TrEMBL record:
Database matches in Gene3D superfamilies: Electron Transport, Fmn-binding Protein, Chain A (2.30.110.10)
Pfam families: Pyrid_ox_like
Domain General stress protein FMN-binding split barrel: 10-149
Name of the protein in its database record: General stress protein 26
Signal peptide interval: none
Cited InterPro entries: Split_barrel_FMN-bd (IPR012349), Stress-Dev_Protein (IPR052917), YdaG_split_barrel_FMN-bd (IPR038725)
Length: 163
């Protein structure tokens, strides 16, 4: 794995391209018992360093974020992206309305202006990703890994700093 020293904008663009079109992520919080992951739908906005999620206050993730705002969000499709960040509870009716759609009304059984509905804003600090690459690239990478050769310059697994 290597860490890129890209500019902030290049790092954001890399992550944006990798997660574009993946609407469900595994959202991990820290509970008193340990780590807890659950699938959540990401809001359909261009990634700019922040991720947005809608939920209700009567969920464990609400209390977990209040207790410890460190979270991890994982996307998996053709590539795998793990985003480490800090979550913040946002209760902005205009922003909730902006992200609201009829699917939420059915799923949450309420409307965007319900005071129990909240937004979770995740400010990304870093992202590690694994590109699927072509078969030859993957085979070469895995061979180098198992034979303890340098994989530092491979682009299949990278970490980008976002903060």
């Amino acid at each position: 794995m290597s860490t890129l020293n890209n500019s902030y904008q290049e790092a954001v663009e890399t992550v944006r391209k990798l997660i574009k079109g993946i609407d469900t992520a595994m959202f991990t919080t820290i509970s008193p018992e340990g780590l807890v992951s659950r699938p959540m739908k990401t809001q359909e906005v261009e990634f700019d360093g922040d991720l947005w999620f809608l939920t209700k206050k009567d969920t464990s993730k609400f209390d977990e974020i209040l207790h410890d705002p460190r979270v991890n969000v994982v996307y998996a499709d053709k590539s795998y992206v793990s985003i480490r960040g800090v979550a913040k509870i946002v209760n902005d009716v205009a922003k909730k309305k902006e992200y609201w759609n009829p699917g939420y009304e059915a799923f949450l059984k309420t409307s965007y202006d319900d005071p129990e509905v909240i937004l979770i804003q995740v400010h990304a600090e870093a992202a590690e990703y694994w590109k699927s690459g072509n078969l030859a690239e993957k085979a070469s990478y895995m061979f180098k890994r198992i034979t303890n050769q340098d994989t530092e310059h491979s682009n299949l697994n990278q970490t980008v700093e976002l903060d």
